[in-house]
């Protein structure tokens, strides 16, 4: 019995630690992929310390965790003292209130807080950016408080109540009694509550994910949302360092406790050490608050304007692989502006984020039909074309498009096609018959499907021969039926994760945007692109717009103008591999791209492409509902 | 009485908790009862919920399964730790705590690397000639992810209960003629019931509402209620339906924890550590 | 007589509608050693806490040196307390504990050191200043608690069952020690205990309380010898309490016999309680006794034997130095001064039968009283 217990315990610990070992090993890997150890390197650690963005995100996480801990500890301790002196009945009520965030699932807490902040902030106070640093802090304090209270309360209950009386008897006011006596008694509870709050806050993803705005993002949220690039090894390096740090801290704490425990047993002479340790902890809490506040005041004193750009992932040259770093170039040209980039996965997600409200965004780059929808929903501002001189370089065929007939709201950014990316090692050329490849049972489990309603329905519509802009509900139902039929064959519904999965050959077939496909083909030579010309395909335009929640319209127009410069546009396309709506830009692109059939298909091929149009709010929602049912629920059988 | 003044210290806290826990739940209720387009009162979001019952059932099934597995795996471990010397206890306790402090997202991603078709385990299996198996994107993988992530939440409360157990009770039982197995069944197990229920609650609640685990380790058939809520808020642009689903999830969790508390004996402040 | 220092007027205390104190009227003189004595739940600790300022009475006033101090918080009263379980601060050593009050009052460091050292001497703990509280024995902790209170030179020291947690030997020593300190410092002690022996041996004045009311106030001898009612009689020492009828002055009838006594002033034929202390009963040969009974049990107590003797179905406790075996038939004689007569009260009939009553109180049941506060 004892022996089996021991073996089982060892096995469980192996089980708990293997994934962490995998991550730690990956941090020393020269290769990109977690599954293949190609060689040993310490480069990732050097990279980590060079990556300002990653360090800033880590800094954000630490800052929020420190502040949330400081506030929760101070606020929670005071509250615990108050609750302790409540009458038992009332105390019970308050404790069940305290238990709500503890028992409520994180996702419900996150959702409810974000709805509250948006409801009150945007709806009632008319705030532009109701989801911000402060809401994040409030959320973290809200889930941190119960940890402090639930740790401090038992200490208060264990404490000899007459200690307070004794202190007052000896001349202390109640406040003095707290600081001179009670505090020392409940300190262990405060410390463990604080530590729990800190670790919970530092690693919190779910709640932060719902209440965070675009300006202040923490590391876990970024790790979740920015999955387009395979998670870089330097993140694993960071994980390894954090692991070591926490390990050392825990060991140190335990050693201190053991020593303190032993001292208490022998207790030959008074141990000043214990008191000094406690003072240190109290000092640390105070320091956390001070540093945090200082950081805030300091941080807010930026003289530069912040321009919030919301873009698709991997949709702007960032300086890697020898390309131009667009943002850096822009900031060099306009030193008073700082660009803050955040990302969305699909047009629908962007629309959802904007209409949920609570965030400030200055520039967005949605696709054609979504621009039309946003115009109809009054979500876009008219552009001042005096500030966008470079608009003159835009090709005539891209001016006054169907989605923005008077060209008041948008400046085109890229255009491209949607086709199928496939792995030549595993997919037989003979099966490249059209969109039906995605329904080919031979590849069951190896097919990825694009995870947004419009593109998914579009594919079904091309396959079934309907118009991609049909509003016939019977036809739409048939499309949903078709998608439901496909579900058993589909490995995953993905957007940005497609990169990792296709590159490491976890899946072989996926419909996606041509430019992104080009990027993946550069990473894995076995990937190829197939455009089902016979059945038709989507031809899209992404254009830059300014949403109504914009706060820096002039800077936003400067940015749009900058991106419309032929030279910049060309350099940008070198990285993102899409077609530029500016002919002049083509001259600045690398030859292999400028002449690529995938980037710039021939006129003849282009003629077979069709563009999505905005249908109506009712049809959009109808399609979205069908899509959910077909892909998430087993509603169609 | 003189203590009246310190009672006031709890007032800001009570207000804070009302404003940031109870009222938000009210707002969720408000959203659940309004139409996404017009903002008018409607019951249609609630009517649509019927369609989501299978997903809800699946979520409950998976999380109950993982809670049970956690119990079966966690009990011996907690028992083992609770019967070590004080130093060993501290070290083992720390080793259980440590994973909880590390990034939940990255640790789950590591499982993707382990389980996927081209992953570490399958590469190994292939190398030793067994051939690749379908590990990831199965219900088993989702349950594995839940067990992995939430096992410490089971071990810690169990350990807390078992370590408090008076050793003399075991001796008394043996003195009265119980075999070790009988002692376990008749004394130790009944006395650790509060720990068992609190552990089950602490595993069940995060498991039933997770979306990251099922998104990463699950397939197209292992959609959980958390996935739906996340999607409706973040992509589907239907926060109202999402709010209705959140309400259902919350009700489910409160009913379950209520039942657990009834059986487990409501211990005030029965939290780990 | 020395002057009056504290006066409690019509003190009443209620918790959640339950009356804990019922119009307490009491004055305490300067330099007096006054003890509040009673079983747990009698309200003695509540009274003490009201004097200390930790509780506000529901009604009534507390006067200190002629001023009403109901609204003066504890930290402004010239009163210090020695708490039941000492309430020493575990994070401070002996010296710092004693210095606590002086430092709060912001006295200069030299004065603090000097006064604390002097106090350590008073309580015989010289050289213990750097010891940690938890390394001290119970008696030493007790002394620290006393020193910590006394170093502030209060006018009144309140002691709440200060010896309750000590073993018997230590308790005896500390009783003498406390009395010595009180006399040396010349300050007023208000002492709470449920131990009658402690109360009788140390106090100038004993206040016997029960059910939130004062039962009797008096010198220890008076309380013992002239209990006012059956409760006091039973609580202070041990007593045989019998029903009797006062025939006339100095004549009382019980057990079917008429006895001479020293009490008077009762109505003719008034029903009364007759109290006879077990040590006052003389055992004689059966034929010489006023009453004749059979010994039903014998317990050796060291100094004496406690024997239970049955008279016509009633059991008496008798303390005697001579051994009488179980089953022996003995006679007893009662002298007039050994028979105490008192009016019937609510306590009548509650005590007296030794087969069912035990005078022992669990020391820690006093906790129940604390919880309510």
Short description:
Chain A is an alpha/beta fold and 637 residues long.
Q: What is the CATH T-level topology of chain B?
A: MetI-like fold
Strands of the widest sheet of chain C, in order across it, are 6-7-8-3-9-10
CATH architecture of chain B: Orthogonal Bundle
Radius of gyration of chain C: 24 Å
Provide structural commentary.
The complex is a heterotrimer of chains A (637), B (273) and C (373). Chain A is an alpha/beta fold and 637 residues long. Chain A has 25 helices and 10 strands. Among the domains of chain A are: 2-41, no CATH class; 64-232 and 273-299, MetI-like (MetI-like fold, Orthogonal Bundle), CATH 1.10.3720; 305-414 and 542-572, Periplasmic binding protein-like II (D-Maltodextrin-Binding Protein, domain 2). Helix content of chain A is 56%, strand content 10%. In chain B, helix 4 (53-82) crosses helix 11 (193-209), helix 9 (167-175) runs antiparallel to helix 10 and helix 11 (193-209) packs antiparallel against helix 14. Mean pLDDT of chain B is 87; it is low at 266-273. By secondary structure, chain C is of the alpha+beta class. Chain C folds into 2 domains: 4-225, P-loop containing nucleotide triphosphate hydrolases (Rossmann fold, 3-Layer(aba) Sandwich), CATH 3.40.50; 239-346, Nucleic acid-binding proteins (OB fold (Dihydrolipoamide Acetyltransferase, E2P), Beta Barrel), CATH 2.40.50.140. In chain C, 24% of the residues lie in helices and 33% in strands. Chain C starts with a strand and ends with a helix. Chains in contact: A-B, A-C, B-C. Chains A and B meet through helix 1, helix 3, helix 4, helix 5 and helix 6 of A and helix 1, helix 2, helix 4, helix 5 and helix 6 of B.
């Amino acid at each position: 019995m004892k022996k089996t217990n021991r073996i089982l315990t060892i096995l469980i610990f192996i089980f708990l630690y293997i994934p962490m070992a995998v991550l730690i090993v990956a941090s020393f890997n020269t290769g990109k992929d977690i599954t293949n150890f190609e060689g040993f390197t310490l480069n990732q650690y050097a990279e980590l310390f060079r990556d300002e963005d990653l360090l800033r995100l880590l800094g954000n996480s630490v800052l929020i965790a420190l502040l949330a801990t400081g506030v929760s500890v101070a606020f929670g301790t005071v509250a615990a003292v108050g609750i302790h002196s409540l009458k038992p009945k009332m105390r019970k009520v308050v404790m069940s209130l305290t238990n709500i965030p503890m028992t409520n699932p994180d996702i419900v807490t996150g959702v409810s807080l974000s709805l509250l902040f948006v409801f009150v902030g945007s709806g009632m106070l008319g705030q532009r950016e109701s989801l911000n640093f402060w809401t994040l802090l409030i959320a973290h304090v809200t889930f941190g408080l119960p940890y402090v209270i639930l740790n401090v309360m038992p200490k208060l209950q264990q404490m000899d109540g007459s200690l307070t009386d004794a202190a007052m008897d000896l001349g202390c006011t109640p406040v003095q009694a707290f600081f001179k006596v009670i505090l020392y008694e409940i300190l262990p509870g405060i410390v463990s509550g604080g530590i729990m709050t800190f670790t919970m806050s530092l690693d919190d993803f779910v709640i932060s994910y719902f209440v965070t705005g675009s300006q202040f993002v923490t590391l876990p949220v970024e790790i979740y949302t920015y999955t387009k690039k395979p998670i870089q090894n330097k993140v694993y390096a960071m994980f390894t360092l954090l692991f070591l740090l926490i390990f050392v801290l825990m060991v140190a704490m335990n050693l201190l406790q053991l020593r303190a425990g032993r001292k208490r047993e022998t207790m030959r002479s008074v141990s000043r050490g214990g008191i000094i340790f406690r003072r240190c902890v109290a000092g640390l809490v105070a320091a956390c608050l001070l540093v945090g506040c200082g950081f805030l005041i300091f941080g807010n004193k930026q003289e530069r304007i912040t321009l919030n750009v919301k873009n698709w992932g991997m949709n702007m040259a960032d300086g890697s692989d020898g390309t131009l770093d667009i943002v850096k170039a822009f900031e060099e040209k306009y030193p008073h502006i700082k660009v803050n980039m955040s990302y969305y996965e699909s047009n629908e997600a962007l629309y959802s984020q904007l209409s949920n409200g609570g965030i400030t965004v200055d520039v967005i780059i949605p696709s054609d039909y979504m621009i039309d929808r946003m115009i109809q929903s009054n979500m876009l501002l008219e552009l001042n074309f005096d500030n966008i001189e470079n608009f003159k370089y835009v090709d005539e065929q891209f001016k006054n498009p169907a989605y923005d007939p008077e060209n008041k709201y948008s400046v085109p950014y890229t255009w491209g096609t949607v086709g199928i990316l496939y792995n030549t090692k595993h997919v037989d050329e003979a099966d490249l018959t059209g969109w039906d490849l995605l329904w080919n049972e031979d590849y069951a489990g190896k097919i990825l499907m694009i995870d947004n309603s419009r593109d998914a329905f579009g594919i079904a519509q091309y396959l079934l021969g309907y118009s991609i802009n049909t509003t016939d509900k019977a036809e739409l139902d048939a499309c949903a039926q078709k998608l439901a039929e496909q579900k058993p064959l589909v490995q995953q519904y993905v957007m940005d994760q497609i990169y990792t999965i296709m590159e490491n050959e976890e899946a072989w077939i996926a419909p996606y945007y041509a430019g992104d496909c080009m990027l993946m083909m550069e990473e894995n030579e076995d990937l190829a692109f197939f455009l089902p010309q016979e059945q038709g395909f989507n031809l899209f335009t992404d254009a830059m717009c300014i949403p109504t929640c914009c706060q820096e319209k002039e800077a936003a127009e400067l940015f749009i103008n900058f991106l419309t410069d032929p030279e910049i546009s060309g350099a940008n396309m070198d990285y993102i591999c899409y077609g530029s709506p500016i002919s002049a830009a083509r001259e600045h692109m690398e030859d292999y791209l400028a002449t690529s059939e995938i980037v710039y298909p021939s006129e003849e091929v282009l003629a077979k492409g069709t563009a999505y149009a905005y249908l109506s709010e009712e049809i959009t929602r109808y399609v979205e509902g069908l899509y959910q049912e077909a892909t998430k629920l087993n509603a169609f059988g | 009485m003189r203590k009246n003044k310190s009672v006031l210290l709890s007032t800001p806290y009570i207000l804070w908790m009302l404003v940031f826990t109870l009222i938000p739940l009210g707002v969720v209720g408000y959203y659940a009862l309004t139409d996404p387009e017009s903002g008018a009162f409607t019951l249609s979001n609630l009517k649509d919920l019927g369609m989501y019952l299978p997903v809800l059932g699946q979520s409950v099934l998976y999380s109950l399964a993982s809670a049970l597995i956690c119990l079966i795996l966690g009990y011996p471990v907690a028992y083992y730790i609770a019967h070590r010397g004080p130093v060993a206890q501290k070290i083992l306790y720390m080793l259980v705590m440590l994973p909880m402090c590390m990034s939940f997202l990255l640790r789950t991603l590591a499982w993707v690397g382990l389980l996927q078709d081209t992953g570490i385990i399958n590469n190994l299996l292939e190398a030793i000639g067994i051939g690749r198996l379908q590990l990831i994107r199965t219900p088993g993988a989702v349950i594995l992810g839940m067990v992995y992530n939430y096992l410490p939440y089971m071990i810690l409360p169990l350990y807390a209960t078992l370590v408090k157990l008076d050793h003399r009770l075991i001796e008394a039982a043996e003195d009265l003629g119980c075999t070790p197995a009988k002692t376990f069944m008749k004394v130790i197990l009944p006395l650790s019931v509060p720990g068992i229920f609190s552990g089950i609650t602490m595993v069940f609640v995060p498991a039933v509402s997770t979306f990251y685990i099922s998104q990463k380790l699950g397939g197209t058939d292992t959609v959980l209620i958390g996935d739906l809520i996340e999607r409706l808020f973040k992509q589907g642009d239907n926060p109202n339906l999402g709010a209705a689903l959140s309400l259902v999830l919350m009700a489910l969790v409160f009913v379950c924890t209520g039942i657990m508390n009834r059986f487990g004996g409501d211990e005030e402040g029965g939290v780990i550590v | 007589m020395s002057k009056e220092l504290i006066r409690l007027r019509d003190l009443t205390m209620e918790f959640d509608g339950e009356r804990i104190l019922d119009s307490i009227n009491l004055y305490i003189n300067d330099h007096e050693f006054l003890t509040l004595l009673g079983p747990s739940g009698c309200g003695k600790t509540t009274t003490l806490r009201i004097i200390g300022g930790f509780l506000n009475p529901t009604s009534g006033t507390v006067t200190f040196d002629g001023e009403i101090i109901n609204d003066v918080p504890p930290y402004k009263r010239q009163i210090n307390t020695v708490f039941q379980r000492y309430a020493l601060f575990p994070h401070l050593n002996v010296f710092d504990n004693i210095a606590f009050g002086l430092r709060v009052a912001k006295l200069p460091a030299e004065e603090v050191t000097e006064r604390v050292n002097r106090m350590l001497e008073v309580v015989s703990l010289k050289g213990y200043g750097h010891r940690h509280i938890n390394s001290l024995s119970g008696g030493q902790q007790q002394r620290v608690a006393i020193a910590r209170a006394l170093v502030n030179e209060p006018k009144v020291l309140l002691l709440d069952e200060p010896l309750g947690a000590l073993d018997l030997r230590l308790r005896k020593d500390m009783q003498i020690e406390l009395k010595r300190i009180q006399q040396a410092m010349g300050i007023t002690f208000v002492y709470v205990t449920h131990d009658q022996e402690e109360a009788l041996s140390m106090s100038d004045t004993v206040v016997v309380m029960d059910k939130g009311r004062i039962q009797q106030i008096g010198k220890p001898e008076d309380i013992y010898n002239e209990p006012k009612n059956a409760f006091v009689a039973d609580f202070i020492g041990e007593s045989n309490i019998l029903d009797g009828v006062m025939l006339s002055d100095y004549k009382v009838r019980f057990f079917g016999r008429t006895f001479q006594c020293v009490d008077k002033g009762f109505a003719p034929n008034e029903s009364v309680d007759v109290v006879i202390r077990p040590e006052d009963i003389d055992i004689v040969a059966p034929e010489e006794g006023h009453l004749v009974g059979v010994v039903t049990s014998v317990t050796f107590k060291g100094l004496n034997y406690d024997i239970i003797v049955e008279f016509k179905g009633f059991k008496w406790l008798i303390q005697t130095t001579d051994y009488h075996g179980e089953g022996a038939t003995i006679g007893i004689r009662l002298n007039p001064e050994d028979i105490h007569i008192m009016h019937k009260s609510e306590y009548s009939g509650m005590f007296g039968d030794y087969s069912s009553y035990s005078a022992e109180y669990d020391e820690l049941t006093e906790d129940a009283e604390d919880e309510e506060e």
